[in-house]
Amino acid sequence: MTSSKPLARFWEWGKNIICVGRNYAEHAKELKNTLPTEPLFFLKPSSAYVREGSPIIQPYYCNKLHHEVELGVVIGKRAQAVPQKTAMDHVAGYALCLDMTARDTQEECKKKGLPWTMAKGFNTSCPVSDFVPKEKVPDPHQLKIWLKVNGEMRQEGDTSDMIFSIPYIISYISGIVTLEEGDVILTGTPKGVSALQENDEIEAGIQGVLSMRFQVLPNY
């Protein structure tokens, strides 16, 4: 897929980060959420991106920072109301992403009926791996993703367990929000999310494809 910009560095110029919530049944259950009948999605600003070598900064207002490891789908060409059967034509590749969540803030937002922006969109809330071209992933629905904290396995999941498939997600979202080249869709997290402490080291990966490391630091 030809691109006017370097997709291998999509995080430098891509506009939108679209996150799909509750797309793994066991994760929805662990947070006592009902299973969705259609994709639940929210946005992060592009300023949420952080790359390996820089730390994840816990927001000053957060006392319960959670990790959520997710497969990211990188859009390679504009998609507006695309059907499922052609949705994958708009995919350029993939990345591993973390949806860092200020869980205590999110819980308060839910109680008050407020948006989740403070809980999900803060600076460094979207650690992201290197770009993986589409050709190197024969089937994105057959990937094992995992996350360790200080060497201890916390999350292990298989993308085959997603409630909504990638073509369905792209078709659904593009009927509401036009997807642009360089945008990323985070496809949901498997069970095992948990709280992080100051100076924790996160290692996460897509089995047989790539891995990445980040340290958690407080916002002094």
Explain what this protein looks like in three dimensions.
This protein has 220 residues and is α+β, with helices and mostly antiparallel strands. It has a single domain (7-218), classed as Alpha-Beta Complex (Fumarylacetoacetate hydrolase, domain 2). Helices cover 15% and strands 33% of the residues. The strands form four sheets. It has a six-stranded mixed β-sheet with strand order 2-1-13-6-7-10, covered by helices on one side. A hairpin with a 2-residue loop joins strand 11 (144-149) and strand 12 (152-158). The radius of gyration is 16 Å and the shape is globular. Residues 17-216 form the Fumarylacetoacetase-like C-terminal domain. One of its GO terms (cellular component) is mitochondrion. It catalyses: oxaloacetate + H(+) = pyruvate + CO2; 3-fumarylpyruvate + H2O = fumarate + pyruvate + H(+); a 3-acylpyruvate + H2O = a carboxylate + pyruvate + H(+); acetylpyruvate + H2O = acetate + pyruvate + H(+). This is Oxaloacetate tautomerase FAHD1, mitochondrial.
Short structural description:
This protein is of the alpha+beta class and 220 residues long.
Count of β-strands: 15
What are the secondary-structure elements, in order, as H or E?
EHEEEEEHEEHHEEEEHEEE
The helix/strand class is alpha+beta
The first-level CATH class is given as Alpha Beta
Main sheet strand line-up:
2-1-13-6-7-10
User: Which fold name fills CATH's third level, the topology?
Assistant: Fumarylacetoacetate hydrolase, domain 2
Q: What's the end-to-end separation, in Å?
A: 43 Å
Number of helices: 5
Beta-strand portion reads 25-35%
Which segments are poorly predicted (pLDDT under 50) over 5 or more consecutive residues? none
CATH architecture label: Alpha-Beta Complex
Radius of gyration: 16 Å
Look at the structure and give the mean pLDDT: 95
Question: What level of helicity do the residues show?
Answer: 10-25%
